Amino acid sequence: MSEVVTLGEAMACLRADGPINLGGGAHISVAGAEANVAIGLARLGHGVSFAGAVGPDRLGDLVRRTLRAEGVAVGALRTDPAPTGIVVFEQRMTGVTRVDYHRRASAGGTLSAGDVESAFALHPSPPRVLHVTGVTPALGPGPAQAVQAAVRLARSAGARVCLDVNHRARLWSESTARRTLTALAVQADIVVASEEELPLTGAGGGEAELVAGLLAAGVSEVVVKRGAAGASVVTTRETLHLPARPVTAVDPIGAGDAFVAGYLSGVLDGLPAAARLARGVTTGAFAVACHGDWEGLPTRSELDMLDLPDGSAVR
Ligand code: ADP
Fold first, then answer.
1. Is residue 122 part of a domain?
2. Which residue CA neighbors atom 25 of ligand 1 most closely?
3. Would you say the CB of residue 247 lies under 6 angstroms from ligand 1?
4. Distance 250 CA to ligand 1 centre (A)
């Protein structure tokens, strides 16, 4: 099987050239937190399988083709009669993006535990890592059961489970999110959250108490994303912080997913915590320095590109 299995709603995205209410052009692409991570990992040379569902429409074809073109295995990407979901991005100004989702009754929301079982049954050997996010359980009971099934199958197969909290406040109430995400977090080996999301993984307290609670529950590493301030990792043995890589930020969307792809790549490569974090802040910086959620993510040979002086020409 692939080194990594991930699941979720991959959607088509429209990236408007300007304010949408004025009309004008838009660029069609693919979006979705787990799909972004899958592409990020595939670019770094890892075997990744994506489980999900798209509609029997041209946008579904685009999602499938893009994932396949990026080297993500799509054997577990089902075609459902429901339409492919759409997300619309309007970058109102550098650093501020409006995001509108059109995902109600879309194919991605039909994801079920059966899809996950099919994904795991596709290959005889288990993945090394399962990556899930808090977006998918917020989509409805079927996707929530799919995430639970994936975590159960991964744990019983000895795979490491990574949860990126990725809270979407418009999809569910904070109390439901906290209950579901806390239950998921304590089953994970790696928990990734922003500073604001961390309280959704426990009963209360400040960052130190929440992190200590997760480690006491059996989580092996808690990774906190801090935007332009970088990221931290806390394990039972060490606490490390790395500042962000200095780049000109042109598009903040997708930084968290890019960071997770880099961090998990470090996990798969057996790197020590500091090097895992360094790869995560590097891929996160690529995402903010380039337009698009995943389009600018680095291949393995490009990871050192941020060390080049500004104005370099790579010939
Ligand atoms: P999310 O997109 O989930 O909100 P963050 O904004 O925290 O996640 O970004 C994830 C990571 O990407 C950060 O930990 C940091 O390493 C990197 N990053 C984010 N913003 C910037 C920035 N302006 N400059 C450089 N790196 C950044």
1. yes
2. 285
3. yes
4. 12
Tens-place pLDDT, residues 162-192: 999 999 999 999 999 999 999 999 999 999 9
Distance CA(139)–CA(116), nearest Å, equals 16
Average pLDDT over residues 210-238: 97
Check which CATH number belongs to the domain holding 122 and give it.
3.40.1190.20
Say yes or no: CB of residue 109 within 6 Å of ligand 1: no
* Residue 304, pLDDT above cutoff 90: yes
Confidence (pLDDT) at 25: 95
Determine how β-strand 77-79 pairs with β-strand 11-16.
Answer: unpaired
Let me know if residue 315 belongs to a domain.
Answer: no
State in Å: Cα 154 to ligand 1 middle: 28
- Residue 32 pLDDT grade (very low, low, confident, very high; cuts 50, 70, 90): very high
The finding on whether 284 has its CB within 6 A of some atom of ligand 1 is yes
Q: Is 228 in the pocket of ligand 1 (CB under 6 A)?
A: yes
Number of domains in the chain: 1
Nearest CA to ligand 1 atom 22: 228
79 lines ligand 1 (CB under 6 A): no
Phi (first) and psi of residue 189, to 5 degrees? -90, -35
Supply the range of the domain harboring residue 269.
4-303
Q: Is residue 312 part of a domain?
A: no
Copy the structure tokens of residue 300. Answer: 């393995």
- Reduced to 3 states (helix: H, G, I; strand: E, B; else coil), residue 24 is coil
Residues tagged active-site: 257
Check residue 81 and give its pLDDT: 98
Q: In what order do the strands lie in the sheet with 86-93?
A: 26-31, 11-16, 86-93, 96-102
- Asked if the model's pLDDT at residue 246 lies above 90, the reply is yes
Strands 160-164 and 86-93, bridge-based pairing: unpaired
Q: How confident is the model at residue 220 (pLDDT cuts 50, 70, 90)?
A: very high
Please tell me the distance between residue 167's alpha carbon and the centre of ligand 1 in angstroms. 15
- Assigned domain for 39 exists: yes
